Amino acid sequence: MKNQILKILKEEDKYISGEDISKALNVSRTAVWKHINELRKDGYTIESSSKKGYRFLEAPDIPDKREISIPQGQMIGADIQHFDEIDSTNNYAKKIANEGCAHGTVVVAEKQTTGRGRIGRQWQSDTSEGIWFSIVLRPEMKPEDLQVITLAASVAVVEAIEETLGIVCGIKWPNDIIIDGKKLGGILTELSAEPGHVNYVVVGIGINANQDLEHFDYEIRQKAISLKMCKGETVSRSNLLGSILTNFEEVYKGVLLGKNKEIIDRWTKYSVTIGKEVKIAYRNMEYIGTAQSVASDGRLIVQCKDGVTREISAGEIQVRGLLGYT
Ligand code: BT5
């Protein structure tokens, strides 16, 4: 009911009487008044006048289904589940994926209590200044072909940031979103699969949006950055998330159509890895080499100093001069 009232107020864009709303929705005027107060508690600014009724003025920047607009018929984000606080959006996305939720379901949280990075690392996401979300996918693909989905996700993110804010980010293979050598965001892709069959994939994305430097834990303060720190002003999380979801729908369709080359070309445009000297931690060994390109399955091709060309699908790479490798 609350959301139906909000929809009417937004569509009207001028004063509408409590009576008209109550008639349209077949509820009492007291009920309308109660729901309007709840909307105000949610952060909406709604003006009221005893003579004219109610008028919608401003929405809060909460990235939930009320504030994220996506094109009609889009599957990514057709269902958006928003939480004030959660352990990890990836955990919840995996839970509902196991229970059979639809392809494209998105889980967003204002805060995560145990946000995760890769291989057991922590992801600091204890403030609602960031954008923390996970997308459930059900691709008809072989597990070994999935790596390109993470690359496609980073393309969706950097293109959306460029389109909505005019900020050009870099991507460090495979999943770090970088500005000025500092980490703006990361992607954690997890899957449930059997040999030859993927049950689901969860793509978890974290983007530092409106944090100031002091929001970051001391340990990551030197290497983390937010969009606000870069742009000098607060950015709209709902706008950006809407744009990422729409871009993701497009690149994901590309993946299904086998347009890996096009996606990798777009990824390479933003890469801060290709052509650089990198250090690879791979199967308990360390190699130094030059990152040459990304193969069509998403693996990084590195010409190592020992003369061997290695194709890296997982593990760690550090780029010389970036986040630690100097
Ligand atoms: C990542 O891991 O970069 C993947 C991060 C994915 C986070 C999203 S949020 C929504 C979804 N739900 C989750 O629980 N996770 C996903 P990795 O490459 O392992 O990088 C982790 C490292 O980044 C840490 O060890 C820190 O050094 C650094 N770090 C942690 N929090 C950060 C932050 N907010 N900004 C920048 N760097 C951070």
TrEMBL record:
BPL/LPL catalytic domain segment(s): 65-256
Function: Acts both as a biotin--[acetyl-CoA-carboxylase] ligase and a repressor.
EC numbers on record: 6.3.4.15
Alphabetically ordered keywords of this record: ATP-binding, Biotin, DNA-binding, Ligase, Nucleotide-binding, Repressor, Transcription, Transcription regulation
Taxonomic lineage of the native organism: Bacteria, Bacillati, Bacillota, Clostridia, Eubacteriales
PROSITE patterns from the UniProt entry: BPL_LPL_CATALYTIC
Residues holding biotin: 88-90, 112, 116-118, 183
GO molecular function: ATP binding; biotin--[biotin carboxyl-carrier protein] ligase activity; DNA binding; transferase activity
Enzyme class: ligase
Positions in coiled-coil regions: none
One biological process term in Gene Ontology: regulation of DNA-templated transcription
Organism this protein belongs to: Ruminiclostridium papyrosolvens DSM 2782
Reactions listed under catalytic activity: biotin + L-lysyl-[protein] + ATP = N(6)-biotinyl-L-lysyl-[protein] + AMP + diphosphate + H(+)
Protein name: Bifunctional ligase/repressor BirA
GO CC aspect terms: cytoplasm
Top-rank lineage group of the source organism: Bacteria
DNA-binding region of this protein: 18-37
Pfam family, one: BPL_C
Gene giving rise to this polypeptide: birA
Keyword Transport: no
Record-stated family: Belongs to the biotin--protein ligase family.
